[in-house]
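ok trying this again, last paste got cut off
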Amino acid sequence: MSLTDNIIKLKQRIERSCQKAGRSANEITLVAVTKTVGIDEIQLAIDSGIQHIGENRVQEAEQKFEQIGKQATWHLIGHLQTNKIKKALPIFDFIHSVDSLHLAEAISKYAIQMQLEIPCLIEVKTSAEATKFGVAPEGTLELVQQIARLPGIRIQGLMTIGAFLPDPEQARPCFRLLRRLRDEVEQAGIDKVTMQYLSMGMTNDFEVAIEEGANMIRVGRAIFGERN
């Protein structure tokens, strides 16, 4: 099956999930995860209608950005180290993985220097897996309140990586928790904060995420196949 066919099939799955949840597929922003994917394949995906691409590492994104440029909206979905911020900000239109005040302060510092306002999502750790990053659920509201005061950053929602388990249904509590936290932040009415995006769901579990309110999903394997 060609890459274009994969995208068509994926969009059909998104459509079916939305119908099941009583939602419109137009609500869903599809971020194609391009980690380890070559330039030619990324270009083909863009030519086939992909408008958003997600990269995990700044260094890999730099090399691709030189050739692809702003043909697509760039999302940093991996953990961001403070020593990579200066290189990241000119590339990425969205940072999904802000999980501490320390990181946010460093982003704010460089954003001011570059006269940028960076749309960010707060990453929440909704599963007990030790390898996952993110603020603890009970600390989410406080972190949002702290970061909201910083110039150069615009909080636009929450992000999580669900528990990676054989049955996607087992990730449902993670997504349900993130939606509840989104509602809690919204109700707090924090100045300069919008809860526009719930970024959750990947190839193995995005249907469940959509049922639980995701409007931004990050999908790699269903488009590009298994990684090397």
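PB: full thing came through this time. The CA atoms of residues 202 and 219 lie 5 Å apart.
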